[in-house]
């Protein structure tokens, strides 16, 4: 299937709901989509399977596969099944069916990438889903504001702990440090026409990608257009109180060698003229131009909060390459 947009190959990096939003947009405008998924989740079903079976946390991988799944009736039912969580109070309670299928295929095939490709085949996935690294990772964060003395820095370990800390995250590192990239990731980034970072949890989904040395080097060397999709609002726990520009400073601090070409911002982000000026200056520091585009709509769950809209985001991604 060829799209009018002229994006032959798109790579999206991240995790969780943010990556799913990007993938649902990407499939509308790219001929081939590769998702590169963070593998540091240690909560819920993913955390349990990771600890019990010694596998990569499957939750974000499952969500990425489901975002790229075929949409005919048969595949739509399978996708719903993969996202379904068991109820009850027994050993299966809370596990997503897709997490268990991935775990089983990994045991059968002996390789996480082979298992992901097999699930992709079952779901009729457009493109490919790859783990960021073949090694399950932990996130360690330097956090201030947890002690009476605001200068005291404490280290918090674990994605769930970092995402829910009441303090302010200053910096994150990966355990183990400098992990390898998974097979196929560097090649995908190198050959891409568009690479998309964000939206998503800044410290636990977006930043971890650039802390993998081979990924950072591939991002530096690729001829692809690199787009950064800014979150619609600061995230409680991770980036509460952050200005839009602070997100960019944090990215630069963690990945000094990675430049960005386009920064995508939705007009409903509440930016004053001064904040806009600061954001444009911070973007220029990354080599990026700020592109304001309608990429969000109001959620239909009654909360009135803005959420990224696949069709609008797809259109903006296509424009970012032009």
From TrEMBL:
It is found in: Cytoplasm. The keyword Cell cycle does not apply. Signal peptide: none annotated. Pfam families: CofD (PF01933). Keywords: Cytoplasm. Its main location: cytoplasm. Required for morphogenesis under gluconeogenic growth conditions. Belongs to the gluconeogenesis factor family. This is Putative gluconeogenesis factor. It comes from Dietzia maris. The lineage of its organism: Bacteria, Bacillati, Actinomycetota, Actinomycetes, Mycobacteriales. The gene is yvcK.
